[in-house]
Structure formats: C-alpha cells, structure tokens
What we know:
Blueprint: E1 3-4, E2 10-15, E3 19-26, E4 29-37, H1 43-54, E5 61-65, H2 68-74, E6 84-89, H3 95-98, E7 123-126, E8 129-130, E9 136-138, H4 146-154, E10 159-163, H5 172-182, E11 187-190, H6 191-194, H7 200-227, E12 235-239, E13 245-247, H8 248-253, H9 261-277, E14 282-287, E15 292-298, E16 301-302, E17 304-310, E18 325-332, E19 334-337, E20 343-347, E21 353-359, H10 378-384, E22 391-392, E23 397-398, H11 401-409, H12 414-435, E24 448-452, H13 456-467, E25 471-474, H14 481-488, E26 491-498, H15 503-517, E27 522-531, E28 538-542, H16 549-564, E29 572-583, E30 589-590, E31 603-607, E32 610-618, E33 628-629, E34 632-636, E35 639-643, E36 647-651, E37 657-661
Parallel strand pairs: 2-5, 5-12, 6-7, 6-10, 10-11, 14-24, 24-25, 32-34
Antiparallel strand pairs: 1-30, 2-3, 3-4, 8-9, 12-13, 14-15, 15-16, 15-19, 17-18, 20-21, 22-23, 25-37, 26-29, 27-28, 27-29, 31-32, 33-36, 34-35, 36-37
Helix pairs in contact: 2-7, 9-14, 10-11, 10-12, 11-12, 12-13
Amino acid sequence: MIFESVKQxxxxxxxxxxxxxxxxxxxxxxxxxxxxxxxxxxxxxxxLDGLKKYCNTExxxxxxxxxxxxxxxxxxxxxxxxxxxxxxxxxFRDIIEIGRQNRPKLYDLLFxxxxxxxxxxxxxxxxxxxxxxxxxxxxxxxxxLRKPLEEIRKRNIRxxxxxxxxxxxxxxxxxxxxxxxxxxxxxxxxxxxxxxxPREYERTSTATVNAALMPVxxxxxxKLDNSMKNFGSPSLxxxxxxxxxISAEEATTRPVQIVxxxxxxxxxxxxxxxxxxxxxxxxSFDMGGTTAKAGTIRNFEVEITSEYEVGGQSHHxxxxxxxxxxxxxxxxxxxxxxxxxxxxxxKDAAGALKIGPLSAGADPGPVSYGKGGTEPTITDAxxxxxxxxxxxxxxxxxxxxxxAKDALSKLGEPFGIAGEAxxxxxxxxxxxxxxxxxxRGIDPLDFSIMAFGGAGPQHAARIAEEIGVDHVIxxxxxxxxxxxxxxxxxxxxxxxxxxxxxxxxxxxKLEKKMREKFPHAEFLYYxxxxxxxxxxxxxxxxxxxxxxxxxxxDAFEEAHMKAFGFKLERKxxxxxxxxxxxxxxxxxxxxxxxxxxxxxxxxxxxxxxxxIEARTITRHSLKPGSKITGPALIDEYGSTTYVPSxxxxxxxxxxxxxxxxxx
Length: 663
C-alpha cells in the first residue's frame, strides 16, 4: 500500500485498551502500519517499544490519541485520581454531590452513583456573589482564602477547581482568586476558563473533572515528551474529543477535552475517507479490543455535541444520563458500549448468558492470547467459530484455539455459547448505532456503515443486517484506521460566549479574539439553542458571523423536528455560541498499490448454527472489479472481514472493500 504525504517523518499513535496502533509516514509515503500490545499501567512504554522496533529515523511530528484521561476517571490499570479541592460560592459547596437526579437504570434498586471526585472536607466556600447578568453583588475578600489554603497545602493537594455562581457572565471574582492560588498551587482549574456556560452543576463538574485530570495528564505528557527526545524531540499534538488536534500545552491545561481522544480520531478518519470515496452519509463503527463506538457523518461532516458524560460505564446517548460525570465541552457525538474483542462472556446467578461490561483488556487479554486470561471473551468466540484465524498481526502472534474452547466449555457447550455470545454482542453494538441515528431523528437506512478497528470488520455485516442497512465499507488498514485518522486531522481550538446579547457582534468578537492567536486559521461557527424553558440544547452549525437570528431559529426548529418529531410555538433562546479555529495540515492521499494472487486456506465456520465451508482470501489479492460471494473471509494484518451468506464483497478504487447484501 502506498500513500502520499508531507515530506517529513510523521508518526501517529493511538493507544487503545488492548493494542497500541502506530502509523509512520516518511518522505512523502506512509511506510508502515503496526500494532503492539498496550501497556496499560505505563502507556508510554508500549509506544516507545513500538517506535524502537519499527521507527529508525528522527521524527518531525508526533500525533497522539490517548486513553489516559478515560482510564484515570475509571480507575483502571492502577491509574488513580489524586485528591482535589473545590472552592465555590458560599452556600453551594455540595452542588457537586447533589448534582441532578438522573438515573441511567430507573428501576435498578442497587444502582450506585459515580464516586464524588471531591470529598466534603476538601470543598470550601467563599462569600462572593455575581448575579445572572454579570453584576458583582459581592467582591472577593482574599483574606477568606487564607484558611482553606492552609488546609489544602497541609493535605498535600496539588490541584484545585474554582467554580463561582454565574462566573460565565463575569469571571472577575474567579480570576482574582485564581491568580492567588496559582502562586502556591501547582494546578488550578477555573470554571470560567474551562466551561464558561450556564448550569452551575455541569460547569462545576467540568472544572472538577479538569482539575482531577491535570496532574495525571501533565505527568504522562511530560514523560512522553522526555522519552521522545530519543527520536529528535518532535512537536507533540494530541487528538481532542472535538475531532481536532491540540498542543501538548492545551491538553495539559484543559485535559477535560481529551477524554474521548481515540474514538474521535476514528470518526475523523471515517469522515475524511467518506469524502475520498464520495459517500456523504456514513455511520462510523469502530470495534476494538475493549469497546465499540458509533458516530454519524452527514453530508461529509462529523456530528458535534456540547454535552457528554465521562467516566461512566458506557455512553448510551444524550438521553441516558447519571452514570458518569457531566462535562460541558464540544465532543464528537458518539455512543460507546462495552463490546470489544476483549469483552468477557459470563453467566449471571440465574444462568443467563451475558457479555461485558468487564473486559480482559491487554493484560491478561483473551484466553487464547496465552497471557494468563481465564475468562472467555468475544475474541475467543470468534476464534472457535472460525471467523478469525489462529495467527494475529501476520505471524507475530499465535492464538490458542483449544484454550479458548476450554474456557467457553466452563459456561456450557462451547460452540453454542460462542454463537450466542456473538449474537448478543452484535445486538449491543446495533444499539449503539441506533443511539446516534434513531435517537437523533436520523434514519439509519439512509446511511452506509464504515467499519474498522481490529474487530469491526468481523461483525459489521451482521450488525448491518440487524438494523436493516445493505451497504458496508471496510476502509484500508481497518486495524489501525483510528491512528490513520490522526494523519488526516487538523489542529482545532475552541472558544465560546454564553447568552450573547447581539448575535453577530458576539460572533465577531469571538472571531477577532481567535484570529489574534491563530492568524492563519479557518473558522467554524456553532450555536447551542433551545426553546425557552427547555433544559437542554441542540448544537446548530452556523455558516458565518453574519448569521441572522431568524435563520438560526429556523435551523434549530428543523433540527428539533428531526430529533424529537415536533415543534413548539415558543421563543428560541441562543444559550452559547462557539467558534473553532481550524489550522490545516497536509493530509496523506491514498494512491494505487500492487496486487498479488496469493490466497489463504479455506476455513470451516459456524454460521446460523451450522458448520459450513468459507472461502478464505488475503486482502491484498483483491483486484478492482472482482466479486466475492459469501460465505467468505478476507484476512489481512490486524483484522478479518467476514462476508456472510447472502452478502457480496467487492474492492473499490481506493483500497476499500464494499460489502452489499444481495438477498
């Protein structure tokens, strides 16, 4: 496979829950795609091991997608959040614990809310007040800070969040106290800087999550940056949850925006590839070793949302809340479920078969990896049913089918258990796709599915059948496609204003402010709107700073109709406007590659409860114009594409594979 790129060595690395994916571009061509095991406790170790093995030149630019923020919030792999402190307006110190009364499982009597990030003894009040219009009713008395500061330092707390009432309207009191804190505290997170938006709980939560992530994220980036000196100290850019690259400094000061770093890179890759093949409506489906993610691309554009919950069990859409910590920041609109290759198969007390949410991850991994895993996983099920071969990553990693079969036997007849587990995981992943389509008022039948991740191509056709979609695209190098998405990405920085008094004037001020920092940027404009009295907003793309209020209101009502099926005879409020400064990078371009006539050995697979013979071929032997009728398996480095009976596969002109239902 040959790509064209910029004339320098660029390395893109996506750290997943199971594998770390590396893409290297040198002298105008992408020269390598590699997967190495993730080292969860020290992610930088897996990165450096991979680079030492596969990159023997000085690196000019290092692009990175990381799970460090997510894993820290979840307390996974030994990553723990340090104690943090919160300083807030008098009378509001418990807002972070009271929160909202949302419950993701309404009838679950045993449901437990997420652990509070700031314990009661580390929450402090200051007697200050700003009203809803930004008028200061009571100024800060800095003397009040003396006692809280003594206690904070005595407890060796390095990170403090500050969230005052209505600071989005006037941040002066927050800024004053922030300047004092920065003299003696290592990490300070101001809500007016991180999330200058209304809703005191969500803004306080965002500032607190940011404060909690600052120590671990800055430590990780510092270690990674120091380690990269062995490769020439390249510039470091990190994928943000909004779908753009940001600097290491920005990721350190506002780490709340890199929580969904890796999944965002996958959606960006799908968006860019959809432009290349001329397919404007695409569902991005990314199934890796730990989770599966779905996103929507309409008219070649990625859907963005300004509300998200982080650190929860899974992301089941905007209407299911209460399992994590709310964050007010732009995110690629994703649904994420605990359904990956490493998802554990088990039985509950009643003997019903279950999948997830626990994952075997990279350590110990699926039973078939031979690294100490004892509980069967989806990868083990795909192995014993013949969908994947017993060698992964070329010949570098052998899978043990017998050990996988033995583990499944503990739950019952192994092949029946494997088949049922695959059916259950397909249903769970189909649910993720419905969340980003049906829940948003989008008909999935108007879309094609682009499936990637190491496990995505194995399940894509069956999931498409489940939701009624007839067309699936498998992009080139699906196993490392999210890392490839980093190569496609631009730098992207965000700024916002809440409750703009004059729409055009406020957009103009934001653009002027951003243009001073990024003089060569292009700009994207959005507005969060709602009907007056509603408790949530929809994010509406805006064409330019000259947008008329009536145009924006009409666009909101159209979006509301699609999402909820009705309109109201009510005033439309513009709650927040935001601008993204986009600085373009030179992206790689896919060109033709050589084909070979090599093919693999046929495999017997379990399909529909019956064992049948499936044709097996290698992906690089496919030629444009050829057609492969299912059942068939298309093997390649890091992945296998399963073509079920009733489906047909054909290669495209840009190294993609098109799967179409023919029955």
